[in-house]
Amino acid sequence: MAAEFLTIHPQNPETRKISKVVDALRDGAIIVYPTDTIYGIGCDLMNRKAIERLCRIMDIKPQKLDLSFICNDLSHIAEYVRRIDTPVFKVLKKALPGPYTFILESSSKVPKILDINKRTVGIRIPDHNIPREIVKLLGNPLITSSIKDDDVIKAYTTDPEEMYEDFKNEVDIVIDGGPGGNVPSSVIDCTGDEITIIRRGLGDVDKIV
């Protein structure tokens, strides 16, 4: 059965449509959805069967799982990471919501959820209402990966209809929230003694670190 192509307003997501997506996620759905950078593919963090399916779609071994969590706000993060030092918290507060992925030490809860010995976790709070409304209503983060194109020249697909054609037989819902970007998030590692920039993507990293 082909995926549903669901158009949702990017600034004012329709409550009924968000509820429909959340109900599907709770049933184990895989969704393609917009963020403030590029489109992502993800599922409910608390649904292990959905995570296994996501790994198959993305050709990732579950033991090598290195995906990000999409959260709604800073208070949502606390459950999944160890105590955040004040300097790091100041950076998070300045940067989020925004186009950044922060690598943080995971709490003891994360390995239990994923059933793997996961010591770090990538955290995203995108500056985009659709994913944030989804996780707010869901009550759990989405576990997510980026949508990448096989074309080496065009690294990231930006057209939701094109994504639908690529994934309609593998996922359950493709959300059309308008054209996506083609620059990924900046990745910042906060697990060491010093904050380290792993990848310079979207966002002015030098202004926040």
What is the element string, with H for helices and E for strands? Answer: EHEEHEHHEHEHEHEEEH
> Major β-sheet, in short?
10 strands, mixed
Low-confidence stretches: none
Envelope shape? globular
Structural description of this entry:
InterPro entries: DHBP_synth_RibB-like_a/b_dom (IPR017945), Sua5-like_dom (IPR006070), SUA5_domain (IPR052532). This is Threonylcarbamoyl-AMP synthase. It comes from Chryseolinea lacunae. The protein is of the alpha/beta class and about 210 residues long. About 30% of the residues lie in helices and about 20% in strands. The chain has helices spanning about 15-25, 50-60, 75, 85-95, 110-115, 130-140, 160-165, 205-209, and strands at about 5, 30-35, 40-45, 70, 100-105, 120-125, 140-145, 175, 185-190, 195-200. Strands 1-8-2-3-7-4-6-5-9-10 form a ten-stranded mixed sheet, sandwiched between helices. Strand 2 (about 30-35) and strand 3 (about 40-45) form a beta hairpin. Helix 1 (about 15-25) crosses helix 6 (about 130-140). The model has no long low-confidence stretch (mean pLDDT about 90).
SSE layout and pairings?
Elements: E1 4-7, H1 15-26, E2 31-33, E3 40-44, H2 48-58, E4 68-70, H3 74-77, H4 86-95, E5 100-105, H5 109-114, E6 120-124, H6 129-138, E7 142-146, H7 160-167, E8 173-176, E9 186-189, E10 196-199, H8 205-208
Parallel strand pairs: 1-8, 2-8, 4-6, 5-9
Antiparallel strand pairs: 2-3, 3-7, 4-7, 5-6, 9-10
Helix pairs in contact: 1-6
